[in-house]
Each structure stands twice: as structure tokens, then as C-alpha cells.
Amino acid sequence: MVNTKDFFQYDSLAFFGKVNASISHELKNVMAIISETAGLLGDLSDMASMGTPIEPGMLKSCTGSIMEEIQRGFATIRQMNRFAHSIDTPVQSVNLVDLLDLVINLSGYLSFCGKTCLQPCEDVTPIALTSPFLLQAVVYETLIYSFKHTGPGVEITISLQRRDDSAWRIIFPGFNVNKLQVFPDVVTKAMAASIGVAIHCDSAADRLELDVPLMIEGVTAHHVLPEMPDMGNASRTRA
Fold first, then answer.
1. Which CATH number do you get for residue 223?
2. Which residues contact 190 (CB under 8 A, 6 or more apart)?
3. pLDDT tens for residues 110-135?
4. Residues of the domain holding 44
5. Whether residues 71 and 97 fall in one domain
6. Pick from 19, 65, 128, 169: CA 20 to 30 A from residue 197's CA?
7. Cβ–Cβ under 8 Å, residues 121 and 160
8. How far apart, in whole angstroms, are the C-alpha atoms of residue 88 and residue 73?
């Protein structure tokens, strides 16, 4: 039986703090732009009160900029809430596409990260019974490491496949055996091992693979994994 209290130790708390620091930095940028634009509107108002003609387009541009940043702020807060609630239940059934989407959005708040695309598996919903918080941490650290070695101008495409009847496979391109000499670090490796995630490199394809079990071992009986659709039947149904 898994003791879910053991999942959340100092290392996972450090990950939580690191992600929240990047989110707060993003919100700080949003507020800074709104503040600067509001200051410009104040200057324009002062000029208008002194009889200086003000182009309507300038006012429209300022208000449009403020509205754009407000929407950006709301979007950031939505991601923050999604991330915060990922620790509500230590072990639960999750849709891996939703989890990867959240991690991609969270990594986007770091200045050195570029664009990340996701190719989900077809014909089947990728459900796994796991610790969503710890799996996010492993995927996040993998993605961050990828960008640190490719640069912000490079687009990374993550793909998700069904490895077999017992696991899903998340694939990161651009990895080789040499890179795995320093990745994963001890913390990431420990978090992955705690939820049964295997990290290995396909040297022939130059890619890193994270194998996520459909169900981590030793979960309590009340954690029920939804029935997985048959791959062959799903394909025939779609056809």
C-alpha cells in the first residue's frame, strides 16, 4: 500500500515554490505594463486638461493594451489555480493530455523556454492513476532541461503514445546518452521512481522517454482506474 504522505517531502515543496515564483514573476510583469500604461493615460489626461489636442487613437491604444494585459493576467491565474489544485489529492486518475498541457503552460513563464507543442495519442484517452503533482514535477524538469540545451528559439514537440497495456510513453526529442549523464538529477530521479515512472534514452532515435504506468503499485482500493478502451476497437470505431 502506498503511503501518500510520503509523496510530499521537501523536494516536491521546492518544486512547488519554484513554479509559483515563475508565476508571480509573470503576474508582476502584467501589473508593471498596466501601471505604465495607466501612467501614460494620466499624462494624456493632464495634457488634454491643458488644451493639448489628443489623438483618439492614442487613448484607444492605451485602453487596448490594458485590456490585453488583464486577459493575460486572468489566463495566468487560471494556470496557477490548476497547478495549486494538483496537490488536492495525492493519488488520482488523471488525463495525461491535460497534465502535459498544464506543464507546458507553466514552463512558458520562464524566459529561456521557447514554444512547446504536444502531439497526443490518437483514438484513446490517456488516463493514468498516479500522483499528478509529482508527475508534473518530473515532466517539468525534463522540459526545462530540454530548453536549457536547445535555446529559446527552438520549438520542442512532446508526443504521447501508449507503450503497451501497462504504461503510457511521453517522448522528448533531442536527447542522447551524453545528456543523460547529467539528467535526470538525483531529485528528479527519486520523484520519478516514487511513482513508478521509468526514464530512459532511445539512443537510436535520439530521444528521451518517460514511461508512466497506468497505475502505480500499492494504491489503496478506493482509487479506481477508469476502464481503458481497446486500441483496436477504438480504431475500428473511428474508421
1. 3.30.565.10
2. 11
3. 888 888 899 888 778 899 999 999 99
4. 4-85
5. no
6. 19
7. yes
8. 23
